[in-house]
Amino acid sequence: MNKSPLLCLLLLALIGCNGDSTAKPDTDAPKKPKVALIMKSLANEFFSTMADGAEKYQAEHPEEFDLVVNGIKDERDLSRQVALVDEMIAANVDAIVIAPADSKALVPALRRAKKAGVIVVNIDNRLDAAILEAEGVSIPFVGPDNKAGAKTTGSFLAQSLKPGDAVCILEGVRTSFNGQQRFAGFEEAMNDAGAKIVDHQSAEWEMSKANTIAASMLSEHPETKAILAANDSMALGAVAAVKAAGRSGDVLIIGFDNISAVQEAIREGKILATADQHGDQLAVFGIQNALKLLEDPDAKIEDVETPVDLITKESLAK
Predict the structure, then answer these.
(1) 252: Cβ–Cβ under 8 A, 6 or more apart, which residues?
(2) What is the CATH number of the domain that holds 90?
(3) Could you please report the per-residue DSSP string of 85-125?
(4) Average pLDDT taken over every residue of the chain
(5) Among candidates 233, 228, 141, which has minimal Cα distance to 185?
C-alpha cells in the first residue's frame, strides 16, 4: 500500500531528530588553571605593587590562567595567612604562589596543599630548609639573593662612613629568612668597612614600630651615623625619627624594596639608597614557574634567582 507524501515527511523528520547529527556540547575544551597569589600585608606598598604586577600579567594572558589575589592585614598575621592557604585548598585552586610571612610557620599548611594536589611556589621570603626537610616537602623558591642585595646596599653606605663609625640596624621579622639574610648582608658590609654596630632590633617590617625603635636608638646612641633598615617601610619610620631628633642630614639611612615613597625620599636626600627586587615582576616570575609545573608536574623542581639592584639618587636620575 502506498504511503501518503505527508506520512513520509513525518517519518523523515522523526529519523532526523533521533539520528547522530544531534549537536553535542564541547566538553573537551581545556580547563584554565586557577592560580592563587598569597602575599603578606597589602598595606605595604611593595606587596600592593606585587599584586598589581600579577593582575596586569593575568590580564595580558587571560587564556592561560585565572588569578585569585589574597593578602593579610599586617606582616605578623600568621594565623590569617595559614587560613588563606586552607581556604585556597578548599576552593580547589590548581596552584598557590606564596610570599610567606614566616619561613617556618607556613610549611605545614603548604604541605597540606601539596598533599591535596596543589602546585606550590615560594616567592620573596624563602621557606626554612630544615622545616621543609622535616615535613618531607620540596617547594621551589623564586626570588632574589637578599643577603647579596643587602650587602651591596650596605657597601654603598659604607663609602660615606669612617672606620669606627656607629650604626644601627632595623631588622625585619626574625623568623623570616629574608629578614635574616638582609641582616647578615648589612652586618657583613659594616664589618668589612670597620663600622661599629651599636644596636640592632626587629621592627617587624612596620613603619610605626621602626619610628619608635629608631627614636630610642638615637636617644641611647647619639653617636649613630647611619641606620640600615631591612625594608623601605622601616626606612621611612627611621626618616621620621631622625627628623624628630633634629638630625636630618646627619644620620644616613638605607632601605630595601624600592617603593615609590622611598624613591622620592632618595631624590630629596632623606634616604641614601635602597635595593630594588622588582616587586612588580616577582609574583609574575612565581606564576610563570607554577604554570610550567602545572603543564609538567614531573618537571625537576629548581629554584630561580631573580634580580636585585642598587637604587641611588644617581640611578634614579638616569
Answers:
(1) 157, 160, 161, 225, 226, 227, 272
(2) 3.40.50.2300
(3) HHHHHHTT-SEEEE--SSTTTTHHHHHHHHHTT-EEEEESS
(4) 91
(5) 228
What is residue 312's three-state secondary structure?
strand
225 touches 251 (CB < 8 A): yes
CB 125 within 8 A of CB 103: yes
DSSP 269: T
pTM of the entire predicted model: 0.86
Q: What is the DSSP string of 195-258?
A: -EEEEEEE-TT-HHHHHHHHHHHHHH-TTEEEEEESSHHHHHHHHHHHHHTT-TTTSEEE-SS-
Please give the pLDDT value at position 30.
66
- pLDDT above 50: residue 24: no
Q: Does 158 have pLDDT greater than 50?
A: yes
Residue range 220-245, pLDDT digits in tens: 999 999 999 999 999 999 999 999 99
Residue 170 has pLDDT above 90, yes or no: yes
How far apart, in Å, do the first and last CA atoms of the chain sit?
97
Within 13 Å, how many C-alpha atoms sit on residue 27's CB side?
Answer: 2
256, 182 in Cβ contact below 8 A?
yes
Domain residues for the domain of 229 are: 146-276
Co-location of 162 and 269 in the same domain: yes
- 265 and 164 assigned to the same domain: yes
Q: Which residue has the cell 631591612?
A: 230
